Amino acid sequence: MNKLVPVFLCLGLTACGGSNDDSNSTVTPPPLVPPSLKADVCYQMSTSMGNITLAIDLTNVPLTGNNFIDYVESDFYNGTLFHRSVNNFVVQGGGYTSGLVAKLGNAPIVNEANIGLSNKRGTIAMARTSAPDSATSQFFINILDNPQLDASSSNHGYAVFGEVTSGMEVVDQISVVSTNSSDVPLTEILISSMTETNCSN
Predict the structure, then answer these.
(1) What is the pTM of this model?
(2) Where are the alpha helices (DSSP H) in the chain?
């Protein structure tokens, strides 16, 4: 069995599941006044279900934003799947190719969730295991406001690093496809490319 399968199970079942942090590390609470999302770099994500435009925040979450950009610029996401779809919760992708073949990412990054950006509908955030600083390439898009995924005094949270600026109807369509018992879409949803585009004001 592929040694990355347990990672898939962890990401698929717990990466976006709320406050179940198994780490004993100290939790730094977010600021009382959260920052506003910035649109520093934008990309059009072409998928088999339509196009989605993402605005990436490098101002507030530079480590997370630049991590995503590194993957985009290396064409890492081309040919990967939205491998998890949970209606009224999230859609998740960026780590598997056709047939659920795991794609090895770069080294994990530090979790910037304590910056205070909230997992609101349409935001994009990093998926991870129960370890707070374990995110690599996988991301998810929030279908609803999911404040239970935010950093708090007792939860490391999931780092938001951008938002959907157009194509949210495509994300909504992905969120309601038929899936198996592990929330994997029965028909593969492919990310074919990500192309830099102008950020609309």
Answers:
(1) 0.87
(2) 5-14, 62-73, 168-175
